[in-house]
From TrEMBL:
Residue segments, region Disordered: 342-368
Intracellular or extracellular location(s): Membrane
Cited PANTHER family: PROTON MYO-INOSITOL COTRANSPORTER (PTHR48020), SUGAR TRANSPORTER (PTHR48020:SF35)
Organism annotation: Stylosanthes scabra
Topological relation to the membrane, as annotated: Multi-pass membrane protein
Keyword entries, A-Z: Membrane, Transmembrane, Transmembrane helix, Transport
Protein name: Monosaccharide-sensing protein 2
PROSITE patterns associated with the record: MFS, SUGAR_TRANSPORT_1, SUGAR_TRANSPORT_2
TM helices/strands, residue ranges: 46-67, 73-92, 104-121, 141-158, 165-185, 532-550, 562-583, 589-608, 628-648, 654-677
Protein family per UniProt: Belongs to the major facilitator superfamily. Sugar transporter (TC 2.A.1.1) family.
The UniProt record lists the keyword Ribonucleoprotein: no
Superkingdom classification of source: Eukaryota
Location of the Major facilitator superfamily (MFS) profile domain: 9-683
Amino acid sequence: MGARGAILVAIAASIGNFIQGWDNATISGAIVYIKPDLALKTSEEGLVVAMSLIGATLITTCSGAVSDWLGRRPLLIISSLFYFLSGLVMLWSPNVYVLCMARLLDGFGIGLAVTLAPVYISETAPPDIRGSLNTLPQFTGSAGMFLSYCVVFGMSLEASPSWRLMLGILSIPSCLYFLIAIFFLPESPRWLVSKGKMLEAKKVLQRLRGREDVSEEMALLVEGLGIGHETSIEEYVIGGGASEDQEPSEKDKVLLYGSEGAGLSWVAKPVIAAGHSSIKPASRRGSFGNQSMNLIDPLVTLFDSVHEKVPETGSMRSALFPNFGSMFSSTAEPNHNVKNEQYDEENLEREGGDQDYYPSDDGAEDDELRSPLISGRGSTMFNLVRGSGAGGGDEAGIGGGWQLAWKWSEKEGALKRVYLHQEGSRRGSLVSVQGEGEGVHAAGLVSQPALYSKQTVGPAMLHPSQADSKGSTWEALAEPGVKHALIVGIGIQILQQCAGINGILYYTPQILQEAGVEVLLKDIGISSKSTSFLLSAITTLLMLPCIALGMKLMDITGRRQLLLATIPVLIVSLLLLVIGNAIKFSSIVHALIATISVLVYFCCFKMAYGPIPNILCSEIFPTRVRGVCIAICALVFWIGNIIVTYTLPVMLSSIGLAGVFAIYAVACFISWIFVFLKVPETKGMPLEVITEFFAVGARVSRAASAKSL
């Protein structure tokens, strides 16, 4: 299986989240014994728990920039070392001060692992299973919680449980994590390309994809280095015939070139050149002009229009691109001796001289890397070069039905990069189309190549490492598409924390104990503390199949639809908790309502709202600033986490469980509104295409806002 390497790497990278889940459950159980042993006050109790969150927040402030500088893999290794050291110190902790220091080190490990694992997985996973693989951290985190609660429950049955041993066991999985990170995890291929390490990136991709030919994806990774270029939406009719009144002149034809590995080129007829109306993005909700009168972000509509075009079979692969050869065979036979006069001068320059190539910064050169990233012009003008896609067999393109191509713009005298997508469904076309022809309609996102430089002439381009270093990080963050993505990422992280999940998780034993759950198992003879640990273990165990279901649906139903479907269940569960605590029920009824409501809340949250914010944040930012942007979103996440965790004991004592859950229910309702209006669907789309859509969406949003004024 081609994705086997990516799956194994994702599992290995998720071990850090397993340790985080283990730690979350352990501290929620151990704090019950730490409090009397060290004579902690309520504020000190909250500080011991929140110290790891403070550490995670502090390390997150620099993790993004450092990961963009050193790479993702070194920081994952460092996180395992922090975990290991913190476990040893907690095992020794003679007083609250040393314990807080150990919790701070633990927070450093948590901050690095939780922030970088989604980025690392997104940058190594194929688009069609990226959502599923990025749900693995949520699954392993819950698995760690389950095993930890089982250990805590078993130790709670002893006469005098040792909280130091509970916390010190953390060093065992941390050691395993360190060894796997050192000897198994490769560096992110996108980061390697950004640093010009082309040969190493190619080897990593070959390992992850399980095939030798990865040139098409290498070209995509290079294109992902671009940021801030003006992007336009164009539509083409590729191949096929046309009616007499639609037939364009020879000069209106455009030749699109695939990557060197794909070995494809296509004759395209721009729709606008054939006398059609101007291009207008459209969807089932109407045009963007009408969208300016609505609250729904035009970006959401733009993404939805793409997913409406995916063929009804549900496959994320395009029905067009794997079979370009057979489609064109009826219109033109390949003729490798035919040249188009329009490109003769350019062809002679490229064929007569040395071809540009991009040597690897590794100090070695590879024959395949000496060839241009795009297929040569000249011998295949207006004729198809037969060949399979990058993956061989029936797999082609860059994922999600998208194809990477380039065209030469005579008007601007420059090369243009095109992300092509087949219009599989007329009702959901990305751009409005008038008239029907025998060719295949495809929409394209057209922009400058990432390696383009205004200082160069003709086809000459920059080295990838030079393209990555163009402009400052702050300039990149000021780009409209990046700012738009930051609004989405920060917004969903804030609202996720306001939903209260981490506060409930850290204090699950106390919450269940206050709800009177001991009445459910009083006949067994187990203490209330042990009962709450057991119920917590059962709760986390039942989460696992729910997370597995979410993992299955993440790339089928999609991130947005899962959120819109599960957040209302969270609201209902929280309202039941409010009712159960506001109305006087019998102790058994009260315990049942509390236990069932918390269980449903946890399961639904873990299935969607738990993993999706991190998944989205790892997908929507350009490669060059992905680490920094993720750090910004993670910083918001941890600050919210600290506030919720530290204030929960105070809130419980002041307004009670009913008031706390009422606040969380309101936050979930606001979350649903935010998702409906602002969060787009990113399933199955290559990361580079997603960031391009944000750039286009930001421009359209500005235009719509200006028009409404």
